[in-house]
Write a structure and sequence with these properties.
This protein is of the alpha+beta class. A hairpin with a 4-residue loop joins strand 2 and strand 3. It binds 2-acetamido-2-deoxy-beta-D-glucopyranose (7 copies). One 2-acetamido-2-deoxy-beta-D-glucopyranose binds next to loops. Keywords: Signal.
Length: 209
Amino acid sequence: MANPTVIVILIAITATAAAAAAPPATQYTNHTVGGPTGWFFNATTNSSFANYSSWAASQTFNLGDYLIFNTSTNQTVIETYNETTYRGCTPDDDAFEYGGGSNAFGEAQTIAVPLTLEGPAYYFSGAGDGEQCQQGMAFAIQVNKGLGLPPILNQPPPPPYSEPPSASTQWPPVTVAGDQTPGNGGMRSGANMREELFGLLALLLLLRL
Ligand SMILES: *[C@@H]1O[C@H](CO)[C@@H](O)[C@H](O)[C@H]1NC(C)=O
Ligand SMILES: *[C@@H]1O[C@H](CO)[C@@H](O)[C@H](O)[C@H]1NC(C)=O
Ligand SMILES: *[C@@H]1O[C@H](CO)[C@@H](O)[C@H](O)[C@H]1NC(C)=O
Ligand SMILES: *[C@@H]1O[C@H](CO)[C@@H](O)[C@H](O)[C@H]1NC(C)=O
Ligand SMILES: *[C@@H]1O[C@H](CO)[C@@H](O)[C@H](O)[C@H]1NC(C)=O
Ligand SMILES: *[C@@H]1O[C@H](CO)[C@@H](O)[C@H](O)[C@H]1NC(C)=O
Ligand SMILES: *[C@@H]1O[C@H](CO)[C@@H](O)[C@H](O)[C@H]1NC(C)=O
C-alpha cells in the first residue's frame, strides 16, 4: 500500500520541479527572425511582414545562439543595448549595423547575429530614415545565460565590436611580414651592424680622450 503512494508523491515532486525550472538549454539555437516569413518590410502597405515583437516573445534566447535575418538589402539590421536608441529608431553611436556594403535594392541577404551579452538586446531596421522601424521592423529580446558563450564567441571583446580590435590585431602580423622580407632584413641587419660598430668606435675614442 505504501509503495504506490510513495511513487505518486515522487512523480508529483518531479513534475513540480520540472514545471518550476525553465527548460535548461542543452544546445545552441539559430533563430530565423520572423520564422519562414523572414525580415521584410512592404513599402506599399507601409508595414512589416510579421509582428516581430510577437515572434520574439515566442522564443527563448541564450548566449551563443544566433539570430538569422533572412532578408534583402531593402532592410538593415541594427543592434543596440540602449533602449532609448531602440525606442527612437535612430542608429546612434552605440548601435552596431550588420550587413551593408551593397547599394542595390532588393538583393537577398542572410545576416547572422551572435548573441554575446546576457540581458536585454534590441534590433531594428535603419532603412527609410527610421520609418521601417516605426512601422514594426523592431523587436526586443532577453538573452539568458543558457550554456554560456561557446569558446569561439568567448573572445573579448565580443564580435559586435570586432572592428577596432581586428584593425589592431592585424598590426603584429603585418610587422612580422615586413621583417621577414629577405632583402629588407639583410639590409637592415647590415645597417644595424654598421651603426653598432660606429657606436663602439665612438665610445672607444671618447674613453681615450
Ligand atoms: C548557426 O548560424 C551560424 C552562423 O551562420 C553557423 O555558423 C552555425 O553553424 C549555425 N548553427 C546551426 C545549428 O545551424
Ligand atoms: C528565406 O526567405 C526566402 C524568401 O522569403 C524563403 O524562400 C526561404 O525559405 C527563407 N529561408 C528560411 C531558412 O526561412
Ligand atoms: C506589398 O503589399 C501589396 C499590397 O498588399 C502587395 O500587392 C505586394 O505584393 C506586397 N509586396 C511584397 C514585396 O510582398
Ligand atoms: C508610413 O508610415 C509613416 C509613419 O506613420 C509615415 O510617416 C509615412 O508617411 C508612411 N509612408 C507611406 C508611404 O505611407
Ligand atoms: C504585435 O504583437 C503584440 C503582442 O505580442 C501587440 O501588443 C502589438 O500591438 C502587435 N503589433 C502590431 C503592429 O500589430
Ligand atoms: C542611450 O542613448 C541615449 C540617446 O542617445 C543617451 O542619451 C543615453 O546616455 C544612452 N544610455 C546609455 C546607458 O548609454
Ligand atoms: C526594395 O526597394 C525598392 C526601392 O524602394 C523597391 O522598388 C523594391 O520593390 C523593394 N523590394 C522589395 C522586395 O521590397
